Amino acid sequence: MITIDFRKLDILPGDKILDIGCGEGRHTIKACRQNGTICVGADFIFKTLIETKKKLAFHKSINDLKCKSVDLSCMDLTKLPFKNSSFDSIICSEVLEHIMDDAMAISELVRILKSGKILAISVPRFWPEKICWLLSDEYFNANMGHVRIYKKKSLINKIESFGVKHYASHYAHSLHAPFWWLKCLVGPGRTDSKLVNLYHRLLVWDLMKKPKFTASIDKLLNPVLGKSLVLYFKKL
Predict the structure, then answer these.
(1) CA distance 153 to 78
(2) Which of 144, 149, 167, 198 is deepest in the core (most CB within 10 A)?
(3) Tens digits of pLDDT across the chain (236 residues)
(4) Does residue 158 sit in helix, strand or coil?
(5) Could you say which DSSP state residue 136 is in?
(6) Beta strand 38-43 with 16-20: parallel, antiparallel or unpaired?
(7) How far apart are the first and last CA of the chain?
(8) What's 66's DSSP letter?
(9) Is there a contact between 164 and 110 (Cβ–Cβ < 8 Å)?
(10) Is 209 left (phi over 0), alpha (psi -120 to 50) or beta?
């Protein structure tokens, strides 16, 4: 499930790309499909990096990767082990809402980004996320759960205060919002809900098959129902 629009990143051969909070590697793999890139996938949770490694190995076996190199590493977003101005593009998708000291995290992201280059950040959109919080305490109280809900304008202002300029935004994954409302309604930890499992199968089918009609529906509904807010910034 790709949240970031790579067309907005202006990636060139030889660019260094960081996917921080990469999870199981969806954006890392996409970055590795860009010609001649040098990619780093990083996450706080080691076991997700193992899954990313497996997926990268599969894509490599089918000659699906065009990058020069890719590395995976376990790290803390608030204490990144990189020199200043190390990366040409940084992706931070669905991460900041999990971090207590988000100001330090944003500061670190901007610090390691080269001047004039792109930082892409996505977080849960305010009102779909608010419904999830209202439906279930378990949703945001779980370990590594969400610690805050962002509003678009205030988040843009906060990120811009660290020396970047917002230049584009959009919403994504409208089909996923009702799934999470349903999941929160029955209990986020439950695995025996037939309706939730059926909806999940639909989302997996959509992800794998990529039919045009669901893509069209998603695009049509994103401005109103999109679950993720996606923001793009250029470092001054």
Answers:
(1) 23
(2) 149
(3) 899 999 999 999 999 999 999 999 999 999 999 999 999 999 999 999 999 999 999 999 999 999 999 999 999 999 999 999 999 999 999 999 999 999 999 999 999 999 999 999 999 999 999 999 999 988 877 657 889 999 999 999 999 999 999 999 999 999 999 999 999 999 988 899 999 999 999 999 998 898 999 999 999 999 999 999 999 999 99
(4) helix
(5) -
(6) parallel
(7) 30
(8) -
(9) yes
(10) alpha
> How many whole angstroms from its chain centre is CA 191?
24
Domain layout of the chain by residue ranges: 6-235
CA separation for the pair 99, 78 (Å, rounded): 9
Residue 57, both tokens: 């190995």
Q: Which residues pair with 123 in a beta bridge?
A: 229
Cα–Cα distance between 39 and 13 in angstroms, integer? Answer: 11
Residues 6+ apart with CB under 8 A from 195: 182, 186
Partners of residue 235 on adjacent β-strands: 164
**Closest to 20 in 3D by CA, of 89, 100, 85:** 89
Token output for 44: 């706080």
Count CB neighbours of 178 within 10 A.
15
CATH architecture of 6-235: 3-Layer(aba) Sandwich (3.40)
Q: Is the pTM of this model over 0.70?
A: yes
3-class SS of residue 63: coil
